[in-house]
Amino acid sequence: MADKDSTLAWPRITGIVSDLDGVVYRGKNAIQDAVGAFKAWQAERIPLCFVTNNSTHTAGDAVSKLRGFGLDVGEENVVTSAVTAANLIRQTYPAGTRTYVIGAPSLKKAIADAELQITDEQPSVVVMGLDRDITHEKLTIAVDAILKGAVLIGTNPDLLLPTPTGFEPGAGACLTAVSAAARVKPIIVGKPEVHMIEAALLRLGTDRASTLMIGDQIPTDIQAGKRAGLCSVLVTTGVPPIHDPSLLAPDFTVSSLKQIPLKR
Description:
Blueprint: E1 15-18, E2 25-26, E3 29-30, H1 32-43, E4 48-52, H2 59-68, E5 78-80, H3 81-90, E6 98-102, H4 105-113, E7 117-118, E8 125-128, H5 136-147, E9 151-154, E10 160-162, E11 167-169, H6 171-182, E12 187-188, H7 195-204, E13 211-215, H8 218-227, E14 231-235, E15 252-254
Parallel strand pairs: 1-4, 1-13, 4-5, 6-7, 6-8, 8-9, 9-12, 13-14, 14-15
Antiparallel strand pairs: 2-3, 10-11
């Protein structure tokens, strides 16, 4: 359902789960309407939790950025794909499991904090996130390990990320290349899977029927929200919408978060 902004159509809102990139900001620049909306929700004491597929920042990094925009948040308000990936691995593998990591220092920290051994020698698990220093050698190590039996885990499948001037390849671009070369299907941690949404709901303590999921990408944010049973809102301030009839449609589409009614 697109462009529905009637206050009669919106559900009662008791909690909000939201993406970050393309929703609250683009690169280093805040999206002012969004910041204003989140401040208004906080003033009404509506609990918020941000869920980000971006594994290049820690929860602390995200908090510092959001506070810089004037939002009163703490690390309890942020769920990252990096920490979620580490937790998911530890649900299956013991401490000390050999793990090859392609990604930013924040992803490596999350893996190390989970007591997993980071190595490029005979890993049992390959974890891939966004790596802006990606090389052919790194891809080769990953593919070789997977062909020898390692499991492939991706923090997220995002092919594009919004920047202040346009877009850049996301973690899903390189993940797709490795997956295709090794002929395996990766285990996805972030959206469109529901792992981070469920973690956010536990923190919020709100009923999913009255909790919004806000995002700028239909293949990831909206699918995760719909699969988790949340009313899902697409905001068109980030990655251009993909029109794919095989995907679950958002319940609402808005051009500004200020179109979401504060109360019903």
